[in-house]
Amino acid sequence: MEPIVNRIIEWLKGQEYWKQYVGYNILCENSDNEDFIKKSYKYYLKAVGLNSEDVEEESLNYDALQINNDSIQDFKLCRIANVVGVNKLKENQSLPIGDNLTIVYGENGAGKSGYVRLLNNAFVSKGDKEILPNVYSEENNSQPNAEFYFKNSTAEYPISFQDKEGHVEFKSYSCFDTKGADVILNAENDMPYIPKSFSFFTDFLEVINRLSALLDADIRNRKTENPFKSFFQQETLVKQEIDKLNADTDINRIKQIASISEDDKQKHNNELLELNNLKSIKIEDAITELKTISTKLKEYKSHIENLNKAFSSEEIEACKKLIEEFNENEKLRLSQDISLLKHPNIKNVGSDNWKKFMVSAYSFAQEQSHPYPQEGDVCILCHQPLTQESVSLIQKYWELLASKVEQIHKDQIEKINGKVAFCDKIDCDILKNSPKTIEWLQKHHSEQIERIVDFSQKAIGQKEELKSCFSNKIISQSIKNISFDTSCFDKYDGEIEKEIEALNYDSVKKRISDLEKLNTEYSDKEKLSTLLLNIEVFLEKCKWVELANRKAINTRFITDKQKELYNEYVSDTYVRIFNEQCEKLQANFGIDIQNKSSKGNTKRHLILRGRRPSQILSEGEQRAIALADFLTESSYNGNLVKGLIFDDPVNSMDHKRREIIAKCLVDEARNKQVIVFTHDIVFFVALQTEAELQAIDCKKISIRNFNSPGIISPTIPWIAMKVKDRCGKLKNELQSNIKKLSEGEDQDAYVDNVKKWCELLRESWEHCVEEYLFNGAIQRFNPAIQTQRLNKAPFTHELYTELEIGMTDCSNWVHDQAAALNRQIPTYEKLQEWLNTFERYYKKLNGLIK
What is the pTM of this model? Predict the structure, then answer.
C-alpha cells in the first residue's frame, strides 16, 4: 500500500497555495513557530482578498518528502551519551543499546525517569516530556542535550538532541509510559497511536485553528460599533445615512450628501437670518409693526402721487404760463407814464422796491380814519402838513396803484409767491424716518428702494429748478414733468395682510421648527464633511469584516480527506491488528474502538459495554489495553518503526500478566529494537528468561544512584544475575580485590571481604539449583511452576552430592562461627579452587540440559 504521506502530498498539490504552504511545513515539521503562522496567515488573507499586500510565494519541494518503502533507511540506535541538563543526571555517561532487547534496570530515584523523559522528547511520544535541570543546583542551567548514536551497515554516526529536527531517526522510535497510557484510556480523546502520518490532519487543524484565532482577533479589532452616531442627535437625512452605515454603504453617496455649494451657503445664511428674526420677534408687536408698515407704504404711495401731481405735465405747463403772463404784464406795466412821478432827488422811481414801498404806503393809508390824503392832512412819514401839491401827487400814486395793469401784476406776484411757497413745502424725502418699512421693502422688493430713491433725487432737482424759475421769472428748458408708477403699492397691502395672517403661534412655531431642521441638516452636513476620512476608514473596516466573516476557514476539506484515508488505511486494518494484540496480551475484554472525525481531528473512544474501560477494568487490565493500542500502532507502520521504548509497562499487573507482557515484548524484539526501563526485578527476570528461551540477544544495564543519579553500569543487580554472570562477578572480585587484600597487612579487611565473597558464592550455588539442576522449572520470583521444563532437568543423586559439598565449603564462612573452632582463614588459592569447582559444576549441568 502506498505510504499515506505520498497520498497527502498528492492531495496538497491540488489545493490553494496557502493550504499547500501550511501542509508542506507540517510535513517538514516546521509548523510550531510564530513566523510560520504569521506567513500562513498572510497567504490566507491574500487568497481570500482580505489583504492586497504582495506576499512572495515560496517554492515547495514535495519530492524531498516523498516516501519510497524500498529505500527506507536501515539503521539502529546503539547508544545515548553525553547527557547534560536533564534533571540531575550524572553527566558524561553512556547508555548502550542492544540490537534486539535492552533491559535497563533502576531502582526508584536512580535516574531512570530522567532518561525516559529525554527519550519522550527525542522520539515519538505522548508521554511525560517535562525535563527539569538540576533543581538542587543554581549553577546548572544547561539546555537539555545528548548525543544519540545510530549505526547503519557502514558506520556509526551521532546526532545531537538539539539537532534532531529533520532527522528521520527520531521519527522511527515510539515511547510508551504511564502518561501515554492514560491518554489512550481517556474518553473521546485524540487517537495518539493511529499511524503517525494521520497526525498531519490533527496538526493541520491546529494550524487552521490558530489562523482562525488570528482572523477572529482581526475581526474583533476591526469590528466596532458605529462611532459616528453620537455626532448626530437630530433626525436628519445625514443621521439616517450615518445610522445605517455598513459594508454596502457607497462612500460616494456620503460624500455627495456632505457636499455644500456656494448657493447652499447663501441659502443657509438667509434661513439662519430668518430663524433668528422669528425667534427674536413677539407676534403682537410683529403684527403691529406690519400694520404700521402697511400704513407707511400707503403714505409712500400718497406722497409719491402728490409729487407726481406737483411735477405733472399740467403743473409744469401752468408754471410756465404763469411766468410767461407775468413777464408780458410786466412789460405792459413798465410801459405806463410814470415820468410825472419822478423827482430829481429820488432815485429808482418806478422800480420794484419803489412799487413795494408805494403798495405798503397805500395799505397804511387805508388804515387812517378818513380817506387819505385830504387837505390839511400831514405826511404819514414826516408828519409835515401836506400842501395841495403833495396831496395831488399822492393821489396820483394811488391812481397808479389802482390801475388794472398794476392789479394784474399784484395778482401774479401773489401767485408766483404762492408757487414758491408751495415748492418750499414739497417734501421730496419719501423714505425718511421709516427704517422698518425700508427693511421690509429691502427684504421683499429690494428693487423698489432704488427706484424710490432715484425718484426722490429727481423730485429734489425739479423742485429747486422750479424755485429758481419763479425767483428769476425765467422759464428753464430743463424743467420737465417726472412721475412714479404707484401701481406696485397696490399689491403690497395684500402681501402684508398675508404676513399678518401667517403671524400666528402655530405657523411661526412650524416655520421656526422647519428652519431649525434645515439649520440642523446644514450643520450635520458641515460636521459630516469633517468626518469623511474617518467614515471611509470605518467603511473599509466594515467591508473587510463582512468579507472575513464570509471567508471564515472551513475545515471540511481536511475532514473529508482524513475520513477518506482513514477508512482506507485505518478503520478495518487498525481494528483487526488491535484485536490481535489484545489476544496476544490476553486482554480480549470486548473493547470496541469507536472513531469519529470532527474539524480535521480523528477521535477515538474505547468502549466496554457502553462504558469507559476505566470504569470496569482493573488498573492492570487498563494498562494491557493501552499496550495493545500502542503495539497496534507500531505493527501497523511496519518497518517505518525501528524501535519501541517502554517505561515500566507492567505497573499494577499481576505475575501472570507480567509473563505475558514479557513474552510479547521479546516477540517484538525479533523485528525491532525494544528498550525496557523497569524497577521491577521480577519483570526484569521474566524478560531475561524469555529472551533466553527465544534466543533473542538481550543487553542488560543498570542505572544507579551513587551520590548522583544516572550512573550507567553494565552490571545488573546480583539478584537478577544468571549463574554465568554471577560466576564472572565472583571471578572479578576475587582477582581485583581479595587477591590484593591477601597480600596486604589488613587481615580484618581480608576476612570481611572473604565472608562476603563466600556468601555470594553460596547464593550462586543456590541459584544453580533453580537455573540448571531444575532447568528453571521453579523460580523464586515466579509463582508459576513450569513442569514441562523438568523434562530436561539433569537432577541426579551424584549431582546433588557434588552440589552439597560445594555449598558446604563456602557456607562455613558465611555464618558466625564459634571461637573454639578457630578455623583457618581460606587463602586466595583456596577461594580460587572453590570458584573453579563451581564453574565446572554449572557448565556440566548446562551441557546436560542441551
Answer: 0.49
